[in-house]
Records
---
Amino acid sequence: MRDGRDVLSSVVSSQIALHAPHGGVVPELAARAHLEAISTVVDAALRGLGGGWDDVDAVAVTRGPGLVGCLLVGVLYAQAAAQARALPLVGVSHLAGHVYSAWLADEALEPPFVALLVSGGHTESVLLREHGNAERLASTRDDAAGEAFDKVARLLGLGYPGGPAIQRAAAGGDASRFRLPRTHVPGGFSFSGLKTAVRYTIRDLGASALDGEGVPRDPEVVSALAASFQRSAVSQLVDGLEEAVERTDAGAVAVVGGVAANEALRAAVRQRFSGLSVVVPPLDLCTDNAAMIGAAGWQRLRLRGPDAPGFDADPSLAEFA
Ligand code: KG4
Ligand code: ZN
């Protein structure tokens, strides 16, 4: 990154192919794969700079939240690199990274803005009041939105990761064929009831409609359920964002995190908040990436200075800026 907002080089190594056969992330495999990939990924990113490490002024690394084995790989690697080169180092919250992906995506966006943060592990609305100062306005009582997409995809035999698979199956599906609940939790979100409703709807189709894995045999049924689930999930998310925005005087909203890659959600947010400035980052800034960590880290370094060497990874870190 240069000056917080200018991405000079961005490299992402995906583990989707590694985890797909298991239907979800296997923590031990994930940590090992991080260890195997990290040098290659950092070297590839540095190739985008003329002078490699000599051009680097500071290092930012994800400190949490997440799987501890994966976080440790990054934190220890970054600490070693920073120490070897006598560079300042900042430990950044993954969630702050997602919030800052919006700031990165739109040059005109400055706080205060409200971000709907929807990923595999998190569903929250967050107010970034000013740089370095954020407040969580609402969060999920149970499953995260992305988790719900992943679980429902499994029920429908659509594979991992579930979000893109549901989106594909939902295209052309009849969203009104099956009635699923439109959950509304004032001041929060909830997805487990919706997921359970999908499960019961499938069960009620009867054994003859299901294959050996309990998945509906009829692809039109799968599409209809995917469409209905997606509609219900999106409507809850957009309502929740609206409720959050009403509690603030922010003139801008953003949708960030892996689930922000969802076309139906992107369209619904643009439509509902047409009176505000709406930022929906491009897909490669929605799903996990290091550019957003660089942006959040740049602000953090500017405002608070470097972190003391030897800080720990924090699997349950809940910081939004
Ligand atoms: O932010 P992210 O890349 O990783 C976490 O920090 O969790 O988000 C991953 C989540 C997964 O649950 C995935 O199914 C979901 O984002 N996702 C989507 C779409 N693309 C990814 N959900 C809905 N529609 C999509 N197109
Ligand atoms: Zn994420």
---
Amino acid sequence: MSGKFITLEGGEGVGKSTQARRLADALRARGLDVVLTREPGGSDGAEAIRGLLLEGEGDRWSMPSEALLFAAARADHLAKTIRPAVQAGKWVVCDRFLDSSRAYQGIAGGLGDDNVLRLHAIGSGGVLPDRTLVLDLADEEAAARAHARDGGSSDRIGGRDPDFHAEVVAAFREFARQDPDRVRLVDASGSAEQVTERLLGQLADLLP
Ligand code: TMP
């Protein structure tokens, strides 16, 4: 019996964290042993780095520094939380992972996809999820939802300008096009129940 590593991705305001919880519950209802976790964070060391990344001024870090901090947090999270759980036969549902660094720092941040993948090779041995579900919404709807959630204020990265976030969304769509076996776009419109059903549908071939 081997576990699976599933990541949820998407731009701001697509309902990702709600769906991560709902997906974890739906998998548990199927009898699976599920660990729900998130990035940046998910282990003691990575949660400490989370504060450095998300708080403070927009220009607190250069883009390379920011990418290195995400990679360091991810290395700790993988070693302490994700890998042990998967090796113990559990299903890990992770709210954001490598593809967020590729989209936010690599593409929208201009560091380059190759550089982000290089950092991931150094920090985490290049480990990829068994499946990545990208919640995808028409851009206007996502912006409205993000605004409704936090009144327009946001963390250091969520508060970047609309062009940055449009590039993030386009990058996720491109990852799904490049690697359709691992990365699946999932329509995030409609009710929470409908979206969770779509997510489960994209895991059908992995479920026992
Ligand atoms: P959250 O809004 O999903 O909690 O994520 C926190 C912010 O961190 C969000 O704006 C996306 C950003 N982020 C990156 O820029 N790169 C990454 O690798 C990760 C995991 C998150």
